[in-house]
Structures are given as structure tokens and as C-alpha cells.
Automatic annotation (TrEMBL):
GO CC term (a single one): ribosome
Domain of life: Bacteria
Organism for this UniProt entry: Streptomyces echinatus
Keywords: Ribonucleoprotein, Ribosomal protein
Keyword Cell division: no
InterPro entries: Ribosomal_bL36, Ribosomal_bL36_sp, Ribosomal_L36_bact
GO BP annotations listed: translation
Family: Belongs to the bacterial ribosomal protein bL36 family.
GO molecular function: structural constituent of ribosome
Name this protein carries in UniProt: Large ribosomal subunit protein bL36
């Protein structure tokens, strides 16, 4: 799966984690909950 540019931008934020669950890619950020994203 291609990872979207928007996810890559969020990945570089401090505290961000990239998680794959059941084929869906999530970016979760505990320190800044605004910066959440999903793909797939």
C-alpha cells in the first residue's frame, strides 16, 4: 500500500506513531491528539 503524503507529514511530528491494524494504516499521536489520520 502506498502511504499518503499527508501521513508522512504527520509521521514526522513529535510523539507520532504509525500503526497498522487489519490492513489499515493509522497515525496516532498521544501528545497532540489533533494529528490523527487513517488510510485504507
Amino acid at each position: 500500500m502506498k502511504v499518503r503524503k499527508s501521513l508522512r507529514a504527520l509521521k514526522s511530528r513529535p510523539g507520532a506513531q504509525v500503526v497498522r491494524r487489519r490492513g489499515v494504516t493509522y497515525v496516532i499521536n498521544k501528545t497532540e491528539p489533533r494529528f490523527k489520520a487513517r488510510q485504507g
